Amino acid sequence: MKRVFGFSACHRLHSKSLSDEENKRIFGKCNNPNGHGHNYKVEVTVRGKIDHNTGMVMNLTDLKQHIEEAIMKPLDHKNLDLDVPYFAHVVSTTENLAVYIWDSMAKRLPACMLYEIKVYETDKNIVVYRGE
Ligand SMILES: Nc1nc2c(c(=O)[nH]1)N=C([C@H](O)[C@H](O)COP(=O)(O)OP(=O)(O)OP(=O)(O)O)CN2
Ligand SMILES: [Zn+2]
């Protein structure tokens, strides 16, 4: 079962463990100090047995509430690097964003229910993470 949603945020690709020259060489235009924004799209997939009484794997209303608390409140309309403590020392790539979202959701959902996080940074740049 899957819930799809979007959020907007800005960021800059910059690693504190690299020199300014290395940052510019590796991240190119994405290292511009002014940053840039994305309309991220995220797919959260959960799995489990269908409850005989409710007919649901999980109530989508509950999943929506977890997404709101774990992802939308901390990330939507934020500067990822400045507003989200996790990214103070972690480069705000889509890979790391997928890990952040996985960890935040895994803390809230019953054990083993979270199956996959898919983050679309753009229509063409997509990261899939299954917690491995
Ligand atoms: N492995 C990764 N590489 C890059 C990431 C990332 O998260 N992981 N991110 C970026 C930049 O954030 C950048 O915003 C990507 O933008 P851009 O290349 O312009 O996006 P598109 O591929 O959609 O643009 P086209 O010009 O249409 O190809 C860079 N690398
Ligand atoms: Zn970007």
From TrEMBL:
What pathway does this protein act in?
Answer: Cofactor biosynthesis; tetrahydrobiopterin biosynthesis; tetrahydrobiopterin from 7,8-dihydroneopterin triphosphate: step 1/3
Q: Please cite one Gene Ontology biological process associated with this protein.
A: tetrahydrobiopterin biosynthetic process
Q: Looking at its record, which EC class is this enzyme?
A: lyase
List the SUPFAM superfamilies hit by this protein, alphabetically: Tetrahydrobiopterin biosynthesis enzymes-like
Enzyme nomenclature, EC number: 4.2.3.12
Known catalytic reactions: 7,8-dihydroneopterin 3'-triphosphate = 6-pyruvoyl-5,6,7,8-tetrahydropterin + triphosphate + H(+)
Role played: Involved in the biosynthesis of tetrahydrobiopterin, an essential cofactor of aromatic amino acid hydroxylases. Catalyzes the transformation of 7,8-dihydroneopterin triphosphate into 6-pyruvoyl tetrahydropterin.
Which protein family is named in the record? Belongs to the PTPS family.
Protein name per Swiss-Prot or TrEMBL:
6-pyruvoyl tetrahydrobiopterin synthase
